[in-house]
């Protein structure tokens, strides 16, 4: 698993990357009540705001970690947004994307580096 | 940036694990480890303790205080009985709202509670128009809200269970004078308790020692008051909105209205009395978005799913943990009918919402 500075985790599954948010991010957000997911087939560029998480108090964006195409979204989150608080690293993945350039993944932090990053 | 102030309960909040944030010039707890959602639901199920010491507490002494105060508010204070409290608002010459407040008749003086962000201006405003105004900087203010509040407080301060909604009284606890009103801003039965600053932590700990009571932060305070359909100053009402537009005209008694014994005589009376007679052009209304996506402050409201100019704007919005759905307040044309569908533009998409009566959740006051 790799981690971004925007508190996302990335897991590879063949040539596809699964994206979610970290436990740290889920705690900071508080109780999640709604997740606005991208559409399958969307082409995204690194840094695009492609997903919105609404907690009781505020809305936060999830950014596309890299260039690519959305190939799947987690429909369970639409039904049960609280999964983001209950199981951020597991059941609460947000979307899967096919990367334009798979080698771009190498630049991200590993778990130890991410732990240092959040202090 | 000026230094943030702290309430007498600051250290206790930190000890309880609160996340502190700047709010109206103070460092205040936004949530405790329980989290906003559970804090909200706990208040509705049992009792929540809120620190509202950042709000202004003011005494206006003198037998003639009520009469003089009526020159600042469209509310009847001469008709307010001793031992009773009433919701009021300071208005300006244009009929806009300078602040909303609570006024209690305590016999030889009025006791006034104003919003933290407005308190300096409010006090200057009162001083400019009233003979004597004493700001009380040495008292904390706690709110105990929820169905268990009555039992919890009665056990500590006997006699308080007999109070009715909007009663006020002076009670004693361990040699300390508590000023208590049966009121609050959550839609729940409950109390607001003014306690000397040097006894505030001790008293708060006594309340928290009851297993029914949890400390509650600003996050849940906001979702609770929104479910209750209550205005937040600076968001739902301000100097650009009149009390009639703000849908708080119920607070204006008949004696201050056209044809009443003490008609007008407050700032902005011409406009406010005319709006009471003829209706305002726009009105604060409730919205229930149809999906799960909240419509937050600033979302523009349209009559149709595409095209056209906005007909209004959300002033407060979020998710209601008790109603398990999003809810919002918006100013809409006054002829918009309850049950009508309007559209809020959220992140570029027009989402449908139903115009509904407020509160979103019925209040449980002990009248």
From TrEMBL, chain A:
SUPFAM superfamilies: Single hybrid motif (SSF51230)
UniProtKB keywords: Lipoyl
Gene3D superfamilies: 2.40.50.100
Lipoyl-binding domain ranges (all copies): 16-98
InterPro entries named in the record: 2-oxoA_DH_lipoyl-BS, Biotin_lipoyl, GCV_H, GCV_H/Fam206, GCV_H_sub, Single_hybrid_motif
Residues that bear N6-lipoyllysine: 57
Domain of life the protein comes from: Bacteria
Function: The glycine cleavage system catalyzes the degradation of glycine. The H protein shuttles the methylamine group of glycine from the P protein to the T protein.
Database matches in PANTHER family: GLYCINE CLEAVAGE SYSTEM H PROTEIN, GLYCINE CLEAVAGE SYSTEM H PROTEIN-RELATED
Quaternary structure (record): The glycine cleavage system is composed of four proteins: P, T, L and H.
Protein name, UniProt field: Glycine cleavage system H protein
Species of origin: Thioclava nitratireducens
UniProtKB/TrEMBL annotation, chain B:
Keyword Transferase: yes
EC number of the protein: 2.1.2.10
Protein origin, superkingdom: Bacteria
Annotated GCVT N-terminal domain residues: 9-254
Matches recorded under InterPro entries: GcvT, GcvT/YgfZ/DmdA, GcvT/YgfZ_C, GcvT_C, GCVT_N, TrmE/GcvT-like
Pfam families with a match to the protein in the record: GCV_T, GCV_T_C
Enzyme superclass (EC): transferase
Record-annotated Aminomethyltransferase C-terminal domain positions: 284-360
UniProt entry keywords in alphabetical sequence: Aminotransferase, Transferase
Catalytic activity: N(6)-[(R)-S(8)-aminomethyldihydrolipoyl]-L-lysyl-[protein] + (6S)-5,6,7,8-tetrahydrofolate = N(6)-[(R)-dihydrolipoyl]-L-lysyl-[protein] + (6R)-5,10-methylene-5,6,7,8-tetrahydrofolate + NH4(+)
Family membership: Belongs to the GcvT family.
Name the UniProt record assigns to this protein: aminomethyltransferase
Species, as recorded: Thioclava nitratireducens
Gene name for this UniProt entry: gcvT
